[in-house]
Design a protein that fits this description.
Blueprint (H helix, E strand, L loop, with lengths): L31 H16 L14 H18 L3 H8 L3 H14 L3 H24 L1 H4 L1
Helix pairs in contact: 1-2, 1-3, 1-5, 2-4, 2-5, 3-4
């Protein structure tokens, strides 16, 4: 006889704010450059880095390079920006953005990194929407 253990269901957080902007919202009026800058700002704050470290022309310290990879990943996943668009904003090659997305996606097997990325993505998406509504002159 085998003993079957029931696992509790995963806790899920549902936000009262829609995480993805509606297809025909005012969010489509904001530039991809500003969107990438917003994501980079959020990631830099989370990593305790200057935002300039994410846009530096060289790879920089490993912490800054990983933060840059996360910012590029979140811009692609959270805001559906193309590799080409992200590469132009971060002054990198399109294949570098692709590599960054693969590295971060592979790292999501680590539960702590996965939770951190979920929180960052939620903050970036909901914070961007709030910024657009309250201060449209800054987000344009």
């Amino acid at each position: 006889m085998f003993l079957q253990l029931k696992t509790p269901p995963m806790l899920q957080f549902t936000s009262p704010v829609s995480p993805a902007p509606p297809e025909h919202s005012s969010a489509t009026l904001f530039t991809p450059e500003r969107t990438c800058q917003w994501v980079a700002f959020c990631v830099a704050r989370d990593f305790g880095l200057e935002m300039a470290a994410l846009f530096a022309p060289t790879r920089g310290a490993p912490r800054a390079a990983f933060a840059r990879q996360i910012a590029m990943y979140l811009a692609h996943i959270g805001f559906e920006l193309s590799f080409g668009t992200i590469s132009r904003v971060f002054h990198r090659d399109r294949t570098t953005v692709s590599h960054a997305c693969h590295v971060v996606e592979d790292g999501r097997d680590d539960i702590w990194l996965d939770c951190r990325l979920e929180a960052l993505e939620l903050f970036c998406r909901t914070g961007w929407g709030a910024l657009q509504q309250t201060m449209p002159e800054i987000s344009q």
